Amino acid sequence: FMKRRKKWSRYPPGPMSLPFVGTMPYIDFNNPHLSFNKFHKKFGNIFSLQNCWTNVVVLNGYKTVKEALVHKADDFADRPYFPTYEHVGYGDKSEGIVVARYGHVWKEIRKFTLSTLRDFGMGKKSLEEQVTEEAGFLCSAIKAEEGRPFDLRFLVNNAVCNMICSIIYGGRFDYGDEVFRKMVALFENSLSEEAGFLTQFLNVMPILLRIPGLPQKVFRGQKAYMDFIDVLIQKHMETWNPEHTRDFTDAFLKEMSKGKEAEENGFNYNNLRLVTADLFAAGSDTTSATLRWAFLYMLLHPGTQSKIHKEIDMVIGRERSPTMMDQVNMPYTNAVIHEAQRCGDIAPVGLPHMAYRDTELQGYFIPKGTTVITNLSSVLKDESVWKKPNEFYPEHFLDVNGQFVKPEAFMPFSAGRRVCLGAQLARMELFIFFTTLLQQFTFMLPEDQPRPWTDGYFALIKCPHPFKLRAIPR
Ligand code: HEM
Predict the structure, then answer these.
(1) Pocket lining: 101 vs ligand 1, CB cutoff 6 Å
(2) pLDDT bucket at 1, cuts 50 / 70 / 90
(3) Whose Cα sits closest to atom 30 in ligand 1?
């Protein structure tokens, strides 16, 4: 095991690998980006690790990550295969999107999903109108708290999940709806199961998956969530009318009805459930965590909050709802949202990539099949780019005239072939939810609450620790 890494000359350097476990004991899996930052300082922008048998290369800093994902886009576009996926239905021609191998089926599904999201509206409300409508429901729910201290997490999660529900199932749920509550709970269970140590361990020791009954026990939450998705799709199929596309599920069913070729391209029932599960997983917690970071920074920086209030009053006023057109006239608010994304750094280690073919980067050799981690945190906090990398400083996104500027190292959605598919929707949700809430409320720290921590905790994404706030109507 120790020799494995030394097979290639010009392979990136890294810490010494131990028998059997490789370099795993050196990594704090609760804060992998912090461990990576230490090795970055010691070994440079490209270093190697070994997770038991798996070779891993970690890329750090804006220049290196951009070179790999943008200039050598194809070489780094694959995803590693994890044996545990099979237990949630991953199979031939049905790999979802997020963890799908780089190839024909992924391309077809990605193209279809992007164009379906883009054409959204489908004769009904546009996506932007739906975000605005949901922001209204969110405001009403916050108003109902009547200025008492509360945790924003549940309500923001509901609003963001509702957006995905509208896209996939053509409708939103009331926040108190039983089915909705069940779905959100099942989904959260399934995510925490996936992030858990046991799942990670089974991926490096897949032989244990053969123990009778073990997979059923370990993946109980994920299975329950997929069963729930099956019920929703079944209900949809019963009312499906090919003449009238209501939502993403209908659009997918229409593709499926095109026959054998479509099935070969990934438009089959099993993939429909995986793709929709992926859209939930990739599109809800990410946006919700970013919004929670943004509100946390507002509590800790009341001066910034007042400046945003002033800009909203000047550009939008108190009556009309914010629209995406307002964004260009609101450089300060826009800068604050971008800085919340940069500083909150919710996907510090992105999603794992895999070398699609033998390749080279900055003189190092990276063989086909190597797992490649893009340390996005090291890009968003790259000392050679950002003036105050570890502070909340909206001026990172403002020029000397107070106009909005976006440095190229702003990469919270990653870059290249696998760049976040929902970035446009996420940007819309962040701007409209954040601006609508600040138009209506002043957010304050409750007097009896401790000052919230700003370091966050990591469970697939980096979330702020739970905190309470008071929302006072303006
Ligand atoms: C992938 C960030 C919201 C759908 C990703 C990746 C990142 C990311 C870092 C990995 C890219 C890579 O592998 O290099 C974010 C952030 C969000 C957000 C920060 C919110 C603030 C969304 C939303 C959706 C979405 C709203 C869906 C509607 C996806 C999908 C992928 C992805 C499907 C996989 C793309 C692929 O492998 O081809 N996202 N995301 N994301 N995201 Fe997002």
Answers:
(1) no
(2) very low
(3) 421
Closest CA to 269 of 93, 79, 85: 93
Ligand 1 centre to CA of 281 (Å) is 9
Residue 420 near ligand 1, beta carbon < 6 Å = yes
CA distance 350 to 348: 6
Residue 251 near ligand 1, beta carbon < 6 Å: no
Distance CA 376, CA 178 (A): 38
Question: pLDDT tens-digit profile of 137-161?
Answer: 999 999 999 999 999 999 999 999 9
Residues 6+ apart with CB under 8 A from 276: 168, 229, 233, 248, 249
Pairing assessment for the beta strands 457-459 and 461-463 based on DSSP bridges? antiparallel
> Mean pLDDT throughout 350-370?
96
278 lines ligand 1 (CB under 6 A): yes
Dihedral through CA 101, CA 222, CA 191, CA 56, nearest 10? -40
Among protein residues, the one with the nearest Cα to ligand 1's atom 17 is 286
DSSP β-bridge partners for residue 54:
51
For tokens 């001066």, the residue is 303
What is the percent of the chain with per-residue pLDDT over 70, rounded to a whole number? 97
pTM: 0.94
Amino acid at 147: G
Residues ≥6 apart with Cβ < 8 Å to 31: 458
At 122 the three-state DSSP class reads coil
140 CB-contact burial (10 Å; exposed 0-12 / middle 13-18 / buried 19+): exposed
Q: What is the pLDDT of residue 210?
A: 86
Under DSSP, the state recorded for 6 is: G
Q: How far apart are CA 393 and CA 471, in angstroms?
A: 23
Ligand 1 touching residue 286 (CB < 6 A): yes
464 lines ligand 1 (CB under 6 A): no
Ligand 1 within 6 A of CB of 98: yes
188-225, pLDDT tens digit by residue?
A: 888 777 777 778 778 878 888 888 888 888 888 888 88
